[in-house]
Amino acid sequence: MSYIVAKGWKRPLSMLIAAAMAGPAVAAEVLLSAEFTPTSQGFVHTTANLSICADFAMFCNMKGVGSADLPISYRKGTEHSAADPRDQFYVGMPSPVTVQVRNQAGDTHNVVFKITYVTHRTDTLPDSPPNTTPQSGACTQSAARTGLTYASVLWWLRNPASGAPCHSSSHRGGAGDLRSSQVSQFGVLYTLDTPSPWRMKNGRYTGDVMFTVGSGGQIDLGNQVSELNDDTLTLKFQLDVQHPFIVETPPGSELAVLEPQGGWLEWANRSYPPPRLYRDHPLRLWSAGPFKVHTQCEFPDGGHCAIRNPGDGHQVPVEVALSLPSGAEHAGAAALRVPLPVDSANALTFDSHTPVLNRPGMLHYQVVQPYVSQMMQRAGARYEGWVRIVFDAQL
């Protein structure tokens, strides 16, 4: 007999990330999120959109780009066309940063966080917000909503890897004009370079990175900065990875009757025994991540399971092997007739380098020579024993 046991999850892989303002006594934190489903071919950002995305929807809805409000507010003094760009409206954002995330089992992966756009609103009295046009340095203004005393703008970082700063003065007024502006609605558009989700094990992965904020900080706001709400910002990453995993076998797969090629009638009048007794059972697999497989036996026998003749206790080993569809592999190669070991300590790991959704596979059972000859010496005897196949997606 054979029993098929599948342990796993039907929930999609997800990556959690959202934005939150910290209280006065707590350092500013932002939690970012994205979700993976097998049909999406990668992660989809699920962080709540920037508060000003209503004005810049075409940018916030770009494929593969996430957005997040950053809890940064401050007052900025500026001098129109100042010789030192840090005395103009000035923003320097950090270069791409690699964050290591780890799950409960200690498995680690790297995620690269890269800022591609920065947004902010300035309110300036009596007039002339300083963050409009023209921009200089590493930025180009991609979108803006302005009035006499305010401006909400979206700056594109032309070379995010450089970490080069951006600066601007108002399109009104002239050189030397002084302004004091309240800056709010600070946020970013970003990308996450993640590992292949199909090769990540189930579990919750967490990691974080902290940036300094203010004049000379990693998020550099230039000179004449006051009323800054916090001088550090922590980005927290939480990746909740739960792969869909299903193994289905057709009715009758609970019993594997081993016979020679063509059935016993084909061998009734032959003077030599068949080379093997076997049975193949089909299965169907849904998987988007790694999993392990092993067997459990009623009669373990030297690394194999065995079937036994209850009449005299004679037993013979049964080779159990697994073939999986393309997209799943073992040890970097196609999973074709891979022998399955006994006990969880010896379990084999299989990977899904692409989603395997409702694809056919096969379980193979066989007894080979010289054991078939030993069985033939007990004509009329019945050999039996159960074998349990354990598919474990909870690595």
Task: Describe what is shown at a glance.
This protein is 3% helix and 49% strand. It is mostly beta strands and 395 residues long. A hairpin with a 3-residue loop joins β13 (139-146) and β14.
Mean pLDDT metric: 87
What proportion of the residues form beta strands (DSSP E)?
over 45%
The count of β-strands is 32
Based on CA atoms alone, the radius of gyration comes out at 32 Å
Uncertain runs with pLDDT below 50, 5 residues or more? Answer: 1-26
Alpha-carbon distance between the two ends: 27 Å
Largest sheet: 8 strands, mixed
Question: How would you sum up this structure, described in words?
Answer:
- The protein is mostly beta strands and 395 residues long.
- The protein is rod-shaped, with a radius of gyration of 32 Å.
- It has helices at 57-60, 371-376, and strands at residues 2-7, 14-16, 19-20, 28-32, 34-37, 42-45, 66-69, 74-79, 89-91, 97-102, 108-125, 135-137, 139-146, 150-157, 166-168, 178-193, 203-214, 219-220, 225-226, 232-241, 245-248, 276-287, 291-297, 300-301, 304-308, 315-323, 328-330, 333-334, 338-339, 348-352, 356-368, 387-392.
- The strands form 5 sheets. Strands 2, 3, 4, 5, 6, 17, 18 and 20 form an 8-stranded mixed β-sheet that branches.
- It has 2 helices and 32 strands.
